[in-house]
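Milestone M4 deliverable, item 7.
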Amino acid sequence: MTSTITLERRLAKLRGLMGERGYDAVVLRNNPDLRWLTGAERCFDDEVAHVALVTPDGLWLHTDSRYFNGLRERMGADGPWSIDMDGEEAPRWAARRILQARARVVAVEDSVSVSFVDALQVCCAELGVACLLPRLHEDVMALRMVKDEEEIARMREAQAITDAAFEHICGYIKAGMTELAVRAELESFMLSHGADALSFETIVAAGANGANPHARPSAYVIQKGDMVVMDYGAGLGDYHSDMTRTVCVGACGALQREVYDAVRRAHETCAREARPGCLGSDVHRRAVEVISEAGYGDYFKHGLGHGVGLQIHEQPNFGRSWDKPVPEGSVVTIEPGIYLPGQFGVRLEDFGVMRHDGYHAFTASTHDLVIVG
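Output delivered:
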């Protein structure tokens, strides 16, 4: 459970932003943002079933019968949030709360649907509420960018499960297995060794399939000599881990080792040189330089890394377009890759936190090329 002090600090961040912008209230619907502010673990799923109103001195959350009991249990009946469960539609509920709060400038999260905003405007007009509805442009996500120590501890726990799964799968993979069988074993291990969810759909891509960065596992039968790319993660308490390792089945050829070594150099160079305040685009560019020097610049086209937290892709990132400083306390992946069409792919990914003295990986699994089977 998230501590009361941590939740108070998060709310203070949001209210500080409201004060700077001149907002009387904010309307929130994005589930990761609600999870971050309320601390209600394992209550929010993919359903857009909730709406919150935050004012300088009030906290209201509207939900329905599917979530009400769980939210009350986790947030406490005597907590700072007032939790409503009724049949009222979300836009009308929000308009009524805006009226009660006498709010005149109400920022609305820009992740909400256009239909919600339209309905909110209609309901406000019907209730005689005259207010401005500016947009929150990923402002709460930006507040979530710097992780507190409780979040970091949870992601370390999730990564420990993910690392254990790698050790296990290295003793499991054999030629003759399908990619689907390897995925099933990876996921089963994580879920039976402490994970309460999967971070995302697991990637297992062998041989030529590995040249597709987001390949989906198939009935392809793994052969001796195949490189196998495995990108996966354990979820724990709504937080994610993210890791990629590429292994070789049986003997490894000279080209495979050359490509693997180039990816490893790119990874370790960026991890060694990254510092808080660096531009994400500069870190990405450094990976491109290392891979290009090895002669494979045409075969690395995706971003070097992304933020991780309550979502598997968050701010900030190590990408060509993130020309902003990467702050201390942010959690980011480093995942260079080389993908040779029709042959094989290699990706090596850790994730970790930006501390004052550099990048500290949560991932403990070896960077050495592991030969399996």
